[in-house]
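Translate sequence into structure tokens.
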Amino acid sequence: MKKYTKAENSWVMYDWANSAYSIIISTAVFPLYYKASATSGGVSGSNSTAYLGYTIAIATFILAMIGPILGTIADYKGLKKKFFIFFFALGTISTALLAFIPGDHWLLLLGIYTLTVLGSSGSNVFYDAFLVDVAPEEKMNQVSSRGYGLGYIGSTIPFLLSIVIILLAQKEVIGITAGTASKIAFLITAVWWGVFSIPILRNVKQKYYIEREKNPVGQSFRRLGKTLKEIRKYKALFLFLLAYFFYIDGVGTIITMSTAYGTDLGISATNLLIILFATQVVAAPFAFLYGRLAKKYTGKKMLYVGISVYIIVCTYAYFMKTTTDFWIIAMLVASSQGGIQALSRAYFAKLVPKENANEFFGFYNIFGKFASIMGPLLVGATAQITGNSSSGVFSLIILFIIGITLLRFVPETKVEAPPVGEIKTV
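Result follows.
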């Protein structure tokens, strides 16, 4: 018997494909390219940063609002794949379009970037929901962790290739500008994302669904309203979402604000990119390890371990003073960030009614998106009051303590939620 089925292998390959977007477009290359474009357009540094922040906030809000609605509609037979393909196509095409926007058109860049965010995050809602279709419950931890592990590995290849091209362009070793090199990186991302998504497009199908009804949009809104009214019947599921809201906020804040911490320590941009690359490399085997250990010790216990590591990170960050300290924190984060995200996805997938997975993963998306608001505010306010960014990082310990406390009250095994619609399988 094969360890992983064709459907499972095809599903995890989307993590490999989409992770290139996460590091090249969301984290590393695009923000630097956009800042240079805005500067050449006469926009001040503070304003260009603010505009980028507003763009991300708008895209995040749109996704958070439409996630459960689209998810509820996608629970009908044959619609999950169609929604996934739509957002996947939106993401890859708009990412490629970034390469064809003139360098001084910074506002148009932000507009296209918004489409890439909607495409990437939107496709992930339905990708996550496909976990219930490809893996049995006893394998969800391993399959989800394998996806994150391969994602880290897959992201390093196009990222390294892009960085090499950009550095060679900056040193005038090759006859192109750094801006052109960045555009090549955007094309590399789109091609990588598209090519390695072929397996999920061909081999993953919606197994659990609700039979279509007349006026599916109206019926979907009614089902969504019924779920919200009967929220007490899903106590375990929403208690987990509440715990997830707090601890994933801390995880996301540390990831997204890591370069700011490094800059405060005087670490150069080049060294920060090296540390970021090393973090991706180290995170891959640890994501696999979390999946294996979850099989032996349960996913919930491994979530305790991961959250505990982040509590140590917050404590250590308070005393952070040197580049060595930053490296230690980065490696601690690398040891647990993939495991926490993978096991959270699998834990949630075990709790949801399979025929309504899209609807509930829409809520999962809401909690994940809005969780990215409180952490940065907490860090910013604490750092401003104390005049010390290390104190800001330490303040995140509150989120992890609340999260791990709430997680204690979530059942270890799946609690069967009442079906919202008639379940069908193929």
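Note: Residues 6-40 form the longest helix (35 residues).
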